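**Backbone shape codes:**
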Amino acid sequence: MTSDVSQPKADPTPAGTDLFDPLGVDWTPVSPRLASARLTVTAIVLGPLLIGTVALAALTGVAWLWSLPAVIVLLGVWIGLLVPRQVRALAYAERADDLLVRRGILFQQLVVVPYGRMQYVDVTAGPLARKFGIASVQLHTASPATTASIEGLPPQEAARLRDRLASRGEARLAGL
């Protein structure tokens, strides 16, 4: 007589593999200076709001208006705790045929860009990014949905990555 008890199915993924952390991939983290730059932007935005709401509450004398500066301070503290973790979660990896870009804590994202699909590579650095010594590399493909960007790279690394990705893209494109 056979048993109707079904056997547990084997997991198709090997032990130790993760959807957002493939085996054998050496991730390169971005510069921690990106966190400082993002926190500076937060202070630039929230600072005047805090001053304005404190002035409004103090000048009007309405007690419930003091909740506005409190909310802004709590938002600033939350952002101050979140941003460094977000920056630590940013990383990229160069493989033989593609570039991987990983980001996110709660909502994780892994973008795989094949070198043969790249059309061009941008390096950008605004005034604040230059002040903190960081730059961004953005990869453009034929599909707008597969563009990827890597923020917070030291300028020398951004230039190296731009040149390397462009040459790999040209080599893959020439092989088509």
Observations:
- The CA atoms of residues 35 and 84 lie 5 Å apart.
- The helical segments are 33-60, 67-89, 127-132, 155-174.
- The first strand starts at residue 28 and ends at 29.
- The beta strands are 28-29, 91-94, 98-103, 109-114, 118-124, 135-141, 148-153.
